[in-house]
Write the structure tokens for this entry.
Amino acid sequence: MQLTPERLLDRLRDGALDRAYFFYGDEPLQIMEMTDALRARARAQGLLERRVFDADNASDWDAIGSESNALSLFAERRLIEIRIGSRNPDKRGTEVLEAITAQQDGDDVFLVLAGAIESRARQARWFKVLEKGTCCVVARDLDPGQLPAWLTRRAARHGKRLARAAAAMIAERVEGNLLAAAQEVEKLCLLVDAETIAEADVVHAVTDSARFDVYQLVEALVQRQLARALRIVRGLREEGTEVPLITWALGRELRQLAAMRGAMARGTPLPRVLDEYRVWHQRKTAVGQLLERCSEGELLDLLAYASFVDAVAKGGHDGSPWDELEILILGICGERAARKLMAPL
């Protein structure tokens, strides 16, 4: 059975509890909310024990298979969570998943969690077993046109009506980030006493969080989206954000990227580096491309320039910190002209 995230949440609120679930996708808010709702429903129906497995190799699958066939102490019902790591289930894993989905009796409930799954993997036997034998839900980013309606439904959960113009304004400001969108709606529902949240309420109460916008800036730079990065940093300047907050975030990212590139230079394969540094699945492609494009020395040079921009902002060097920051952004995005513009350190 395949459901949308919202339909799943409705079923769980209505008290339904299926035998097995499969949640996958690269939208973290939906995965988090679905998982939390399932755990809450399981507890309400007497599944007081929760077991969690990280399935990365054959021995893990053997343990999962044994656990799925074992009775819990005092015969308590259990929620058994199986988190699929960076490796797709192997033959043994597929066998275990087939056995789990084939079980018609038993009191345990199973949840298989995964991130984004590539189209090729969706043709594999293990995926089709889960797709057909579980309550299957994919968490994906919403299309821009869907976000205002999603925001309106979100506000309705809090007993508020969100005006169409207000929903459109929030959607434009959060740029598709559902977590930020949810936080903005919750904040407005707390701040606005009226039943309806109007566009004027958004103008007065909703301001782009500087920390969130800096996060957006980092993501734009990792993905080499120069125009978007410049738009964000100019918006930050207009809102009065302090440059050191931005250079701190960029410095942290560049420091980690340089360390990752150094590991690659010492012979560690890129996929292993991405796993060891816990790069989110949805970021792996962009981060991998950046690491292949830049040497460790180039990343360290950019890190040094970020420190220089920070010093300019704090009065340690002459110059305009915002101009120097834009030069740094050009450099991170791979613009060759930026190298000539960078002031001598």
Remarks:
- The longest strand covers residues 49-55.
- The chain has 17 helices and eight strands.
- The chain has a mean pLDDT of 83.
- Residues 1 and 38 are 16 Å apart (CA to CA).
